[in-house]
Amino acid sequence: MASPRWNEFLLGVRRELPMQLGVVPFGMIYGVLAVQSGMSPLAAQLSSVIVFAGSAQLVIAQMLAAGGSPLVILLTAIILNVRHVLYSASLGPHVGRLPRRWRMALAYLLTDEAYAVAIGRYVETAQAPPQPDARHWHFLGAGLTLWLFWNASTLLGVTFGAQLSPAWGLDFAIPLTFLALLVPSLGDGPSRVAALFGAIASVVLVAMPLKLGLFCAMLIGIAAGATWEVFMGGAKPSANPEGTRA
């Protein structure tokens, strides 16, 4: 009979696997763009192994290829990853009791996709947490699955990028992947307003030099969401019925 830890790990893997349909072309595109932007194949691969930042890696590669200034690239990367602070705050009550080695490993594996799977497991079992509580293994299974697929697809892009036909239209997988993650998370007014204004601004400002349109659109979306929350009665964040710990 499998242990609760192994069951949770496998469940996390199974729930993460469908998302890899979007992650694989995403990683391949990153591998191709990273090399085209001037990075060595080894540096491009090590970026995925060490940094493991998905969208930030892709945007940085695109901005390097477009000749973006280091300051703009740095600011964009910071803004893009601010959401991880919110992810960490959301998961903190669930994983804060774990030993430091676990928290460090899970922090490294924290991505959009892994967060979606992990927080979903914590919420669905909030009323009756499994005993013993091995839900962090669920998180680990989801995070490791994404890490493996991301690095394998990066390797494919780095190695075979030159042979990929533009007719494949792989770049379309990127917005589809993020839309699949974004739409279910728009559960309150401020987040919907932030997404709407950010989307409109990104289209209107697309012609700005040095890819500044993306950076400005993020700020506009954040400002719009925050303004809505302050003046329209506040957000109604999803409940954390588990209280302060898993």
Automatic annotation (TrEMBL):
Chief subcellular location: membrane
Its membrane topology: Multi-pass membrane protein
Domain of life (superkingdom): Bacteria
Keyword Nucleus appears in the UniProt entry: no
InterPro entries membership: Brnchd-chn_aa_trnsp_permease
Annotated compartments: Cell membrane
Keyword flag Hydrolase: no
Keywords from the UniProt entry: Cell membrane, Membrane, Transmembrane, Transmembrane helix, Transport
TM spans (from-to): 21-39, 59-82, 139-160, 167-187, 193-226
Similarity remark: Belongs to the AzlC family.
Name used for this protein in its record: AzlC family ABC transporter permease
Organism, scientific name: Pendulispora brunnea
